[in-house]
Amino acid sequence: MPENTPGSEVTEEILKEIKDLGSNTEKNYEELSKSVHTIQDDVKRNEEGLKNIDTSKMAKLAEDITLRQEALDKVNQENEVKLNSRFDKLEVFLKKMPTSLAGSESKSDLEKESIELQKCIMVAKGHTVNIHTAKSLVPDIEALKAHNEAANAFLRVGKDNMNPDQQRALLAGSDADGGITVPQAMSSRILTRLFETDPIRDLAASEKITSDSLDMMIDAEEAGAEWQSETIITTNEDTPVFKKLNIPVHELATRPLATQRLLEDSGINIERWLANKIADRFGRTEAAAFVSGNGTGKPRGFLTYDNGTDFGEVEQVNMGAAAAITADGFAEIKYSLIEQYLNRGTWLMNRSTVLATLLLKDGTGNYIWRRGLSDKEPSTILGLPMRMSTSMPTIAANSLSVALADWKESYMIVDRLGITIQRDPFTKKPFIEFYTRKRVGGSVTNSLAIKLGKIAV
Description:
By secondary structure, the chain is of the alpha+beta class. The protein has helices spanning about 10-45, 55-95, 100, 105-125, 140-155, 165-170, 185-195, 200-205, 260-265, 270-290, 325-335, 340, 350-355, 405-410; strands at about 180, 205-210, 215-220, 240-250, 250-255, 255-260, 315-320, 345-350, 370, 380, 385-390, 400-405, 410-425, 430-445, 450-455. The protein folds into three domains: about 10-40 and about 60-100; about 105-195 and about 250-295 and about 420-440, no CATH class; about 310-415 and about 445-455, 2-Layer Sandwich (hypothetical protein PF0899 fold), CATH 3.30.2320. The chain has 14 helices and 15 strands. The strands form three sheets. A seven-stranded mixed beta sheet has the order 7-15-12-8-11-10-9. Strands 1, 2, 5, 6, 13 and 14 form a six-stranded mixed beta sheet that branches.
């Protein structure tokens, strides 16, 4: 925005605050890095007498690392709240400015958003649509803007207090159960936050559908092959053995509450606020199902399959020690995964399991855990990246506390297109309840690409 443009001082001030928050986060990472180096140097200086070091002292060193990381995570969360607040101020300010000053999205972006909205509305109304082509759908930017304006008015004041034009636009986006299709900007925020809430959705493969389930054909056995030439007749008659896998979607709902005063505050980005609330609740619930859901009324988690190497089974590798993890146990899991999946493998475990892993050494005396201070440089165990999930079981006798997988290959998350909201001002008076629904499923698709570490009894 040019310096002489009205409102430039406001936007520059907000953008400066956003930049400062990013700089503070970078400083926090640098301080944590120095702390980790200090701990490692202390251990190195005492390496010769390591056997005489009190186990409690080693545990304290390991705990210090995780506590510092937790403190950093907390700062990052606080920064995220502040960033969202600054962005909301900027967004509200720009919306109040004339279009020629505030700028606008490109026509192509609006056309894509319009098509996506039409798909979601058709799915909500029970119509089927090929979401990959949808050649019959024509972009309608004015209808998109009208729907988004109506949806925002619906969230703030309810249908009865909307003007006739807004009610007509809202009616076009209503589903059979009386909810409205969530605006695309809000839907995108929800999906983005779902990826950030728990690593499983970020790690696994995902697919959007418009039906009640996804059918996949799985090559259960490798097809035979042989070298041939013009003078040699091919004798291999082996054919692939395919298995049909059906992944149904299940309804997931949440009911966040808002006060009337919050909804009446024009300075609050109500879509962002509600999207964050919804995503937080959806994220925790679905992540737990992806890990341990029984498949009845919810996705089937990868921990619930029978032990084995056949189709529909997931192998459980014994980690050796009773009610504990060992370095040898991690090595057993790692090398039970065949090479093509091992090279893309990522560990998944609870934070408390990671804490116990920090003390483990391999046969040459090297720690199997290596620090990582950001998503771009993740911590590793035996050279493979590690992610933490609160949905994974803690260490206990007979528990499946460790998972290693090529997640894109081994687990599929299926989302039915569209999220709908019903506004209820009566049930929880004086609060406004937003009954929000989405449909999601999940299943293991390739059991050869995942291994589970089982703690001995």
